[in-house]
Design brief:
2 helices, single chain
Length: about 70
């Protein structure tokens, strides 16, 4: 394997890979990492939507309190 690496006889791209893992295992590992990144992004979007709804509810409660205070005089 070392001789193939030195002479450039391998077709595998080693720029983003690992010499320790076989190609199939490396591909599966990278696919799992991509799935995890997608799940984290999806969870982040859900948190952002939840925070937007929460801030809207707090703002509406503040407006209702101001209105009630101004009407009660």
């Amino acid at each position: 394997m070392a001789k193939d690496l030195v002479l450039g006889k391998t077709k595998r791209d080693w720029s983003c890979g690992s010499i320790i893992l076989p190609e199939k295992q490396e591909r599966r590992l990278l696919d799992k990492v991509d799935d995890l990144r997608f799940d984290v992004r999806h969870f982040g979007r859900g948190v952002a939507v939840g925070m937007l709804c929460l801030s809207g509810a707090v703002g509406l409660a503040a407006l209702a309190s101001v209105y009630r205070t101004s009407q009660g005089g």
